[in-house]
Amino acid sequence: MTHWLRYAVLGLLLGTAFAATAIDALPFKNSAQEVRFQNLTRQLRCLVCQNEDLADSNAKLAQDLRLVIFQQMQAGRSDAQIKQWLVDRYSDYVLYKPPLKPSNYALWFGPFVVLLLGALGVVIYLRRRAQPLMASAPDEEEDW
pLDDT value at position 25? Predict the structure, then answer.
């Protein structure tokens, strides 16, 4: 019985190891090209996972996009050309650091505006709450 358990655990460990390494087996020309590929895919967002980069995503679309990026690199396209190709098809959302332009001001400045409005709301609330206490406090001169 313990032999079967050992084999089962060994099989599970080997299976997870192979699954983790079988994401992309692309034939890079050299290590510099592989580093360039990894850097580029870390700058791009998985459109399915949304909060994960293309390098780490296991989604089918991410696998397809990694293959397209690899093919474009093999064709001699620069990183900027590859990014522009993806932006043309998927908009600025595919970039982890989208450029600052009017169409995405809400993305860049929205969190700060919400934070400022929240702080303003707290200040107004605290001032209104403190005013009735000050108005209802008795005058010391009237008591004497």
Answer: 74
